Amino acid sequence: MSANINILVGGEAGQGLATIGESMARAMTRAGYEVAVCQDYMSRIRGGHNTFAIRTGPDPVLAPAEDIDILVALNQETVDLHLSRLTGRGVLVAGDGLAIPAGTPCLRVPFRTLAPKPLYDNVAALGVLGSAVCGDVAILERLVSEAFAKKGAEVLEANLTVLRAAYAWVKEQDFSFACMPPAPAENAGRLMLHGNEAIALGALAAGCNFVSFYPMTPGTSVVLTLIDKGRETGLVSEQAEDEIAAVNMALGAACAGARALVSTSGGGFALMCEGVSLGGMLELPVVLVVAQRPGPATGLPTRTEQADLNLVLYAGHGEFPRAIFAPGSPEDCFYLTHRAFDLAERYQTPCFVLTDQFLADSYRSVAPFDLDALPEPPELLLSPGEPAAYERYRLTEDGVSPRAIPGFSQALVRADSDEHTEDGRLTEDLAVRVAMQDKRLRKGQGLLEETVPPDYYGPDGPDLLLVCWGSALGAALEARQTLEERGKKVAVLHFRQVWPLDGRQFLPFLESAREIVAVEGNSTGQLAALLRQETGVLLDKRILRYDGLPFTARFILDGLEKLDS
After folding, report:
1. Which of 65, 106, 380, 449 is the residue whose CA sits 20 to 30 A from 34?
2. Residue 120 is part of a domain; what is its CATH number?
3. Is the pTM of this model over 0.70?
4. What CATH number did the domain enclosing 521 receive?
5. Cα Rg for the chain, rounded, in angstroms?
6. What pLDDT does 424 receive?
7. Rounded distance, CA 249 to CA 312, Å?
């Protein structure tokens, strides 16, 4: 049995549950434990029912869990909604004013005794929670000090006093919750990042120096991280008046030589489609991050889904090449975003990072990224060898034309949204049109040859193959682990890149499996349909989730039972 535990903090927006949860997760990360966070929040500034779940321990953590070992209830609704999920070893942590069913293992916290006013309740809860799992109080003290140092010595000392009182109070109670084994030594020095932070860091590592955006959950924190960390790198940011302006600003910046990024969600991206098409015609390198949430329209703006694959794949009128990445972890978010910039620059075309609310907000403990393994960004062409003979859209064998940056030499760089000749002049010559379209599409062959292959986990020739993409990876791997423990031969095929698709990379896996089940966070099986379109392989057995919640291993296992019944 794993020594890991699942902690869930529940309450209303405005009660500080995210402060408790994030601080606790950060403390566990600094102590060397594995951490995976799942945030569930309503689209409100105050009120509503929100939760912050932390799965942590010395063993690898792959996905969220549904069972709860420690339930921290900041209000009665949390008790009413989640108490039934408490495990046999579980305990409820609640204030003495809440109604608790008789016989419930409960640690009643006298908040008014530990904290002078409700403002400090979240720090008191952090102290109680940290003490309950035998956390290092020194780590908690450092976290509180970092959080309140800017508010002055008096405020800082008041919070530290509450933290220490709450931590000590637990030790005096008739209470026992099994302390976790020591953390693995090799986990020392890990980072705690959520997916959007990792995307932003991957962009900065790729030389991103311009970002334009219109705020839209859950894509905004990519930009906020870029703005925060980009101060040291000279990044320029611009909040536009709308999404149409945002994408066109990024195209203008790319034309001027910047490495540009736009971050949004499905509804915002829908407004950007004309700009995406313009990027295809101008052959400009721009990276677009689309953080998915349930639609149509506003849908569930703070929940998760994987329903925008088709939107991103077919966005923009006309035909032009693109690459679409679907990270399954913060590590993927970092490295695939860097790769998106690299490919966009080398093939002069829009590239996409397709994430979702779950991965965007899911903190994980990750090893520091290997910056030395990253390819160097392509150098900008500032001055062509023969400026007078320069042709921006020269016909080439691989479709990639020399992209000079305007204003750095005597070369005249023409760019427009109409079809054009090699030197960028507008044309309605139909033979030139065919030649230019063929040139642009030849870049797609280069993108195909550089496609990141899907990752295969498990034995050859499995009885069951789970096919998934993006953030469904962890839950699929945990479901596979459970089935292997039951004596079944199971494998997982995970797509980190969903376009282009190179059947040579994965068809042998599909052909060797006795049974294939697609696992997707949408209601129609979009990747399964795309695989059939590209390869002819029918994945008619599907486990689909579209209730706004992330996949868990239990959801997949329950889905497999339904398929077999």
Report:
1. 106
2. 3.40.920.10
3. yes
4. 3.40.50.920
5. 26
6. 96
7. 19
